[in-house]
Amino acid sequence: MNLILEALSWLGRGENWLGDSGIFFRAGQHLLFVFLVVGISAAIALPIGLFIGHTGKWKNLVLSATGAARAVPTLGVLTLAGLWLGIGWQAPLLALVALAIPPILAGAYSGVISAQGTTVEAARAIGLTEKQILTQLEIPVGAPLILAGLRSALLQVIATATLAAYTANLGLGRFLYAGLKTREYGQMIGGALIVVALALVCDFALGAVQARVNRRLGAQKASVL
Fold first, then answer.
1. pTM value?
2. Any residues with CB less than 8 A from the CB of 135 and at least 6 apart, and which?
């Protein structure tokens, strides 16, 4: 209970929110870094997942790659990347991209294959090209699962991006490391609460987008029927 009170006291002090080392600045750093990681991961994983889902080629690659990648400890990858790349933001970027790719890849693949079946065969029968089938049928129908993969990746990266402070003066993880080093546990817990709050806000926002996509998809199906 005392630690919670210390964390609330730390959060309640105005000087902890302002300046280049304040909560606002660190939270902005954290989010920018998270969006950079997820953006790079999506640029890599989405095209691969869509291609494999549409063509059916190398589908075992998705299962094996996602399973193997999830088994790799992010801190271990970060340590190896840090030894290779040195101190800075590049090592955590590499480690977190490796963490974010599997759920995005799995979501894109699952989304595309969820649309396949007689509908796709009918689309081919009326003369739609493979590109048209992918962009006009499979991606719209699979959008909820694609968004679910992005949502999962974003939440994982928000939580794990605290490790960026392991090799770089970056993000909300600095509060956790500084609090642990100086035994200011109120600062440590307060920083963790900010990370949780960011994750909840982002999850709520993406959940609202996903629910809207689901409703629109449901309305389209109902109009067809």
1. 0.86
2. none
Q: What's at 158, amino acid-wise?
A: I
Report the alpha-carbon distance of residue 200 to residue 219 in Å, rounded: 28
- CB under 8 Å to 92, separation ≥6 — which residues? 33, 78, 81, 161, 163, 164, 166, 167, 168, 170
pLDDT at 28: 92
Q: Which 3 state secondary structure label does DSSP give 170?
A: coil
DSSP state of 161: G
Which one, of 170, 179, 155, lies nearest residue 107 by Cα? 155
Dist. CA 150–CA 139, nearest whole Å: 14
pLDDT for 158 beyond 90: yes
The angle, 0 to 180 degrees and rounded to 10, between the axes of the packed helices 90-114 and 23-55 is: 40
Amino acid at 101: I
Which pairs with CB-CB distance under 8 Å and at least 24 residues apart come from 132-140?
A: 133/54, 134/50, 134/54, 138/50, 138/53, 138/54, 138/111, 138/112, 139/50, 139/111, 139/112, 140/217
